[in-house]
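Notes to self, Major facilitator superfamily (MFS) profile domain-containing protein:
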Amino acid sequence: MVRLRGLTRTSRIVALCSAANFINSADRVIMPIAIVRMTNIFQWSMHAEGWILSAFAGGYLTSQLLGSFWVNRLGAKNILICSVLLWSIATFITPFLASSITALVICRKVLGFAEGLGLPTIFHLFAHSIPMEERSRAFSYLLASGSVGQTVASIICPHLEWEACFYWFGALGFIWVILWFLLYPEGAFIGEDTIPLHMPKVVSRNIRWADFILSRPLWAIYIAHFAMNWSSYIIMQWLPMYFSRYLGGDAQSLSLTAVPYIVNSIVGIICGHLADGLLQNKGWSVLNVRRLMTCIGLVGPALFLAIFCVVDHLALALLFVSISMGLSASNSAGHLSNHVDIAPNHAGTTFAISNTIATIPGVLCGPVTASLVTASGANG
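result:
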């Protein structure tokens, strides 16, 4: 058994969950990069590409609320381990199923289902483990780790055989599961420095499902999350193909799709520290800090994506989409952190509802984008 005595309990929780989110995010961007070469091999139409890319979001949509239920019944640790293991298996076997669109779509749905369990479980852990004054930083590191995972995958995958992309990152998930068991073996020790199998719960007898659905503050979060994800899914699913087909990018250019995620990681951490600094200033309330960060994270990206649409030079397109992704990162200290502010005992559930609604753009943007591009005659 390995014990990391130099790290606090909070640091260990953030580090392990951030590592899981790194793998989670890396696995989901492999296909948008690999599909450029896979289409040349399997001769898929743009509509088939759209359905393959969106299949992930279809699976992701179905598991959000299940994750929030299961985490209270089966334990956060068990759910997180099982979800990482399942999505790693789905990633690893993808090349074996690529010759069948039906099998590939099913595999992508399984990947999405497993990854959909991850963040609600992590939000549950954070809500019960992270002090208020450290939450903005914790969520910023968590989401920045996801951007780092997307960055690493975007840099490495264009230079590997497409099959190897799935093998390597699938294996990385298996390694994470082994390391988790080495660091926290079942029944090894239970103390203040251990992540418990079952997180303590505060049960409120007055909470009803209507409270999650009819709450105006929660709907402000749900709508903000939906808006953020619409642009995020389009960038994740279509940016590599857009660079390759419409801006004349090669393998080296596809690696440049990592730049927006690098900017996103850096800005996210900066915004997290900035938000916590503002919270320590008595002139700023928690609500005003969350509003400020959310406004920056939604209005800023909208402006720069509007400019991105009219640019036909690869370098300028990369610049504007990177600025957009960077500004979007401030949402981690905005509405995404607000779950544990307004509903700390139900953050897993509120995030699951929010992420379910916010996954609808991921389901739609694949086929909708393919249909719009095909109708415009720009897919040739």
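- Confidence is low (pLDDT under 50) at residues 185-203.
- The CA atoms of residues 279 and 286 lie 6 Å apart.
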